[in-house]
Specification:
Elements lengths: L1 E7 H20 L7 H15 E3 L5 E3 L1 E5 L2 H14 L9 E3 L8 H25 L4 E9 L4 H16 L4 E8 L9 H15 L2 E6 H11 L7 H16 L15 H9 L7 E7 L4 H4 L6 H13 L36 E10 L22 H4 E6 L8 E9 L3 H16 L4 H5 L5 H19 L2
Helix pairs in contact: 1-3, 1-5, 1-8, 4-5, 5-6, 6-13, 6-15, 7-8, 13-15
Main location: other
Protein name: Tubulin delta chain
Function: Acts as a positive regulator of hedgehog signaling and regulates ciliary function.
């Protein structure tokens, strides 16, 4: 089944391009340890998900590109075409001459309704090219205007037009130190609206990815492209084909449906985080060896200590004894402690995957008490290595990992709202104070639900 990627705003278009690059590079890479048949079935499954074939033989990304300014889209189209490996459809993009000026309301209430018909027509045409549609993968920023405001509007339109398809929003969480003055407003409005229309939100935090670039990738002058490539590598490690517990003989045919079934057991809990291990510069791979027990031990500790990368993990954090009540992680004056999960998915790629012991992820004390650990944990595997890594593991978790950043964003936005700062910029586009209050209420409920796991 196919996934249509919807790239929204500057951030969404730049990351989307890197994701297709990673996927294409992985498919065309050499994987000597796999049989020809294995490689062919992997290649075919990937192609069905992400590309349609043109007569020229060059794969065409199943994607719709949307931005209110033309510059990024034209760059993205031409760089992809020049690669020779894949390209975008020249007709599957929409842009205007003027952006949203970092104003969520402008993107949501003005640009959205004005351009709804043409954007949804592009989506419909892309959907008609799919033999079977799994759903939509939208990529967007949370802080700006077009990506966040228009992105929230388009997600709602996708839900209305394709009620039975899955929608996974990939959201970039802004730097904590601030990109734009109103980013906390934009973030609160974006998250609360996506929570209503999306099946799940897969979140990457800019601060975390920046740290990975500096500490793990040893990049001295970190560019947006560096950040986007790390994000794309992590996304590729999840979306490339795998065998699930249900499909041990064939690559999974419904990637988005499988993700939702595995990770979102309740509509109140939709926040997904992603960690992968190892992550290092390409020139270091040749000198590095990894054992599965070591990788799994680190990945599990990253999960329970809420560490976003394998460097600097707090090894003191331990699961609470079964049956004990855990202090609220929402309380900011308590030390960082155990990160309770609702559901976890471990994806293993590479050599000897079928002999890996994942029993430590089935420990009931990792999960909330109202779920059976047998249902809360899943593993997907493939013997085919990913992106030059002989062995690699990814963890997608639905856990308390975002409680602190979410609480911070809501708190800062509320403080600004209480003093009526910048509200007029939103009301002039029809977003009323009542809309803000509804958004605060919705997110306070999300925070409360995750706190009480």
């Amino acid at each position: 089944m196919s996934i249509i990627t919807v790239q929204l705003g500057q951030c969404g278009n730049q990351i989307g391009h890197e994701v297709f690059n990673v996927i294409c590079g992985d498919v065309h890479g050499t994987h000597g340890m796999c049989s020809k048949k294995e490689n062919e079935s992997y290649h075919d499954a990937c192609k069905e998900r992400f590309f349609s074939e043109e007569e020229s033989g060059v794969p065409v990304a199943r994607a719709v590109l949307v931005d209110m300014e033309p510059k990024v889209i034209s760059q993205t189209l031409s760089i992809a075409a020049r690669s020779g490996y894949w390209k975008y459809d020249d007709r599957s993009h929409f842009c205007q001459k003027q952006g949203s000026g970092n104003n969520w309301a402008n993107g949501y209430s003005a640009h959205g309704p004005r351009h709804k018909e043409v954007i949804m027509n592009l989506v419909q045409k892309e959907a008609e090219k799919c033999d079977r549609l799994s759903g939509f993968f939208t990529i967007m920023s949370m802080a700006g205007g077009t990506g966040s405001g228009l992105g929230a509007f388009v997600t709602q339109c996708l839900r209305d037009a394709f009620p039975t398809s899955f929608i996974l929003n990939h959201v970039i969480w802004p730097y904590g130190t601030g990109e734009v003055i109103v980013q906390n407003y934009n973030s609160v409005l974006t998250l609360s609206h996506l929570y209503q229309s999306s099946d799940a939100l897969l979140v990457h935090e800019n601060d975390v990815i920046h740290k990975i670039c500096a500490q793990l990738m040893n990049i001295k002058q970190i560019s947006f492209r560096d950040v986007n490539q790390v994000i794309a590598h992590q996304l590729g490690s999840v979306f490339q084909p795998t065998y699930t517990a249900e499909s041990v003989l064939h690559y999974s045919r419904n990637p988005l449906g499988d993700l939702m079934e595995t990770l979102v057991p309740h509509p109140e809990f939709k926040m997904l985080g992603l960690r992968n291990i190892p992550q290092m510069p390409e020139n270091s791979l040749a000198y590095s060896t990894f054992s599965w027990p070591g990788l799994i031990k680190h990945l599990r500790q990253m999960l329970i200590a809420n560490a976003k990368m394998e460097e600097g993990i707090d090894w003191q954090v331990r699961p609470p004894p079964l049956g004990s009540s855990i202090p609220s992680s929402h309380s900011t004056n308590k030390p960082l402690h155990f990160n309770t999960s609702i559901a976890n998915l471990v994806i293993l790629r590479g050599k000897d995957v079928h002999s890996v012991d994942l029993g430590s992820f089935r420990d009931p004390s990792l999960y909330t008490s109202w779920l059976n650990p047998q249902d809360a944990f899943n593993a997907w595997k493939t013997p085919r290595a990913f992106n030059k890594y002989e062995k690699s593991a990814s963890l997608v978790s639905n856990s308390q990992f975002l409680l602190k950043p979410l609480d911070n964003v809501v708190g800062k936005a509320w403080n600004m709202f209480a003093s009526k700062a910048y509200i007029h910029q939103y009301t002039k586009f029809g977003i009323e104070e009542e809309d803000f209050l509804d958004s605060f209420t919705a997110l306070e409920q999300v925070i409360s639900s995750y706190t009480n796991l």
